């Protein structure tokens, strides 16, 4: 459900398919919560959720950047 939390990792209050690091969670903790949610959704509704990676704060390697964007090195 929107806003549900596991420690510092929570489901976004705006989009149920987005996880938010409320501060201090490790990448491993975020991935663990994502896998937990995937398994529960599969168990209850027989729907497979496939992650769509979104890199916040830096572009993915090879990504097309918007006009005027600067790639940090």
Low-confidence stretches: none
Share of residues in strands: 5-15%
Shape: globular
What is the average of the pLDDT values? Answer: 79
Assembly of the depicted chains? single chain
Q: Largest sheet at a glance?
A: 3 strands, antiparallel
Please state the CA-atom Rg, rounded to the nearest Å: 15 Å
Q: How many individual helices? A: 1
Report how far apart the termini are.
38 Å
- Which percent range fits the helix content? 25-40%
Q: Strands across the major sheet, in which order? A: 1-2-3
Order of helices and strands: EEEH
- DSSP E strands, number: 3
How does the helix and strand content classify structurally?
alpha+beta
What does this structure look like?
The structure is a single chain. This protein has one helix at residues 27-45, and strands spanning 5-6, 9-11, 19-21. The chain is an alpha+beta fold and 73 residues long. Strands 1-2-3 form a three-stranded antiparallel β-sheet, with helices on one face. The chain is globular and about 30 Å long.
Characteristics:
3-stranded antiparallel sheet, alpha+beta, 73 residues, 3 strands
Write the layout of secondary structure elements.
Layout: E1 5-6, E2 9-11, E3 19-21, H1 27-45
Antiparallel strand pairs: 1-2, 2-3
Short description:
By secondary structure, this protein is α+β, with helices and mostly antiparallel strands. Helices cover 26% and strands 11% of the residues. It starts with a strand and ends in a 28-residue tail after the last helix.
